[in-house]
């Protein structure tokens, strides 16, 4: 029997680790030449891999060869400079090194005692990031609040929804669950709907308020106020409002200050989701989009989207940590220890859904240290400048139109339909999307706004330069010409 790799051996780790780093570095060196959207058919991998695991160990090189020949063709390359779909999910050298270190020490940091540095670094680094965003001091660990790293914005909204639910039930009675009402615009991420399903909020009590082009798809405070007043008159219990800074469809920005005042007046937990656009708010010229966050009970942004921190790293801040703890805490005998029992420390297991948690603060700490605030600001602003450039290209072609105002690095646009026929226009833009993505040389995604099928061009991959944007626009123009004829 071959011995193969040992479970852990420093010298084997050194040898294989060097090979893996070389493999990944070569991947990034050639990523521009690889089709950005995987071109495989469903079930392709079942035909290439055996139907059971090997009995004897195989060589590390043979595994790497299979990754190159069989796995990478089935990967959609989010770090490609030709990736313009959804929103970015940034990788970086600093983020990768932090992830590597986290994997290397491989702690499980559910309570302070399981690795004190993991808890304390998370508190420190989220205070750093909170100060970069100029969040109110109530959100920092020095007060009653603090920050915690969740896996995704979906987890973040779920834990604060649970905290808000239990807080209001403590006030109005445990049997009032069926009366609780949640509010958001129809542009809010579907993660809130899933959170409501998990939290037991009745589907008919999830108020999805229509937002349209008259407000650039932001939630109207007047509509919210009217809806809440009606619900109160009908005997419902409003308890949770989610506002968005940078919606998924169009980067719409809900007006935080008036929404927050309405929430406060009605005793409603106010959560702000800035998953994508929060990163831009480290730049002074974009910070005003968070004005009103002082009214919020919780705030979330994804460092893994646009702040060079490898997935997953979703930063959540709350003003009242006890609301989370009272909702999510458990204290079984086998987890009891002197520091926790004396209430001297934070146990992050009580701020999240799972017990176990990784040392995610390491990569965020390394990103902030190895790049620094000024470089991160320049990184964000460069992508926004590239989006302005693309917006200008679209505006210069009379066959296309920019559909909603560009605020950050997303441009929403479409190919204009002949004779203003919207049904034809929707099919035309759907076909254009498929044609562009089928080339493998660019990847874009879509949304629907006011019944119109819209193309989204989101700039944010670490390697994207102006030449990639120009090349993508040329593909769009060429494919449009093939669909409707040369202008």
Distance between the termini: 69 Å
Which whole number gives the mean pLDDT?
Answer: 93
Radius of gyration, rounded? 24 Å
Estimate what percentage of residues fall within beta strands: 5-15%
Low-confidence stretches: none
Q: In DSSP terms, counting alpha (H) and pi (I) runs of 4 or more, how many helices?
A: 14
Largest sheet: 7 strands, mixed
Please give the share of residues in helix. Answer: 40-55%
Question: Strands across the major sheet, in which order?
Answer: 1-7-6-5-4-2-3
Characterize the overall form. globular
**Count of β-strands:** 11
String of helices and strands = HHHHEHEHEHEHEEHEHHHEEHEEH
* Secondary-structure content class: alpha/beta
Give a description of the structure:
- With 487 residues, this protein is α/β, with parallel strands linked by helices.
- It contains 14 helices and eleven strands.
- The chain has a seven-stranded mixed β-sheet, sandwiched between helices. Strands 8-9-11-10 form a four-stranded antiparallel β-sheet.
- Strand 2, helix 6 (191-199) and strand 3 (206-209) form a beta-alpha-beta unit.
- The chain is globular and about 65 Å long.
- The N and C termini lie far apart (69 Å).
- The model has no long low-confidence stretch (mean pLDDT 93).
- One of its GO terms (molecular function) is pyridoxal phosphate binding.
- Keywords: Decarboxylase, Lyase, Pyridoxal phosphate.
What attributes does this structure have?
14 helices, alpha/beta, 487 residues, 7-stranded mixed sheet, 11 strands
Q: In terms of topology, how is this protein built?
A:
Blueprint: H1 10-30, H2 60-71, H3 93-105, H4 116-132, E1 146-150, H5 153-172, E2 180-185, H6 191-199, E3 206-209, H7 221-233, E4 237-244, H8 256-265, E5 269-273, E6 298-302, H9 303-306, E7 314-318, H10 321-328, H11 338-341, H12 361-395, E8 400-402, E9 410-415, H13 422-438, E10 445-449, E11 452-458, H14 466-484
Parallel strand pairs: 2-3, 2-4, 4-5, 5-6
Antiparallel strand pairs: 1-7, 6-7, 8-9, 9-11, 10-11
Helix pairs in contact: 3-12, 4-12, 5-6, 5-10, 12-14, 13-14
